[in-house]
């Protein structure tokens, strides 16, 4: 059985998908990009601010499922330019305890929704 997770603290879906789906004790989040949920505006002029907003949006989705970053077991990071990896990783690292950080992959892609620089999704378990 699946439960749809929704929060106004993260951007609303812009297509036929949900912010996250809880199946049993496992949460699968959709990829988050840097849309400010209060203004619905993209924040892509500063890579660190963009990455921080992506992580804040992901945090809001986790919290809507009564979870936090300690529950995350896997993340997927999609970036438009691997040369941006260091800056993105610097911000990403502030959200996790290095000793209990999740597994992850980081993939450079040709393009991302709304031409953003970074998109991150997660799998978390209660």
From TrEMBL:
InterPro entries given in the database record: RidA, RutC-like_sf, YjgF/YER057c/UK114
GO cellular component: cytosol
NCBIfam families: Rid family detoxifying hydrolase
Pfam families per UniProt: Ribonuc_L-PSP (PF01042)
Protein name: 2-iminobutanoate/2-iminopropanoate deaminase
Domain of life of the organism encoding this protein: Bacteria
Entry similarity comment: Belongs to the RutC family.
Any one GO molecular-function label of the UniProt entry: deaminase activity
Source species: Mesonia algae
Gene3D superfamilies: RutC-like
CDD domains noted in UniProt: YjgF_YER057c_UK114_family
């Amino acid at each position: 059985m699946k439960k749809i997770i929704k929060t106004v603290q993260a951007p609303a879906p812009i297509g036929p998908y949900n912010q996250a789906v809880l199946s049993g004790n496992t949460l699968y989040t959709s990829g988050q990009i840097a849309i400010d949920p209060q203004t619905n505006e993209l924040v892509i002029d500063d890579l660190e601010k963009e990455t921080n907003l992506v992580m804040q949006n992901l945090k809001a989705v986790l919290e809507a499922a009564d979870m936090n970053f300690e529950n995350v077991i896997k993340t997927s990071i999609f970036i438009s330019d691997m040369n941006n990896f260091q800056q993105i990783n610097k911000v990403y690292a502030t959200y996790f305890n290095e000793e209990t950080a999740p597994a992850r992959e980081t993939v450079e892609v040709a393009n991302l929704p709304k031409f953003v620089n970074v998109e991150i999704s997660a799998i978390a378990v209660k």
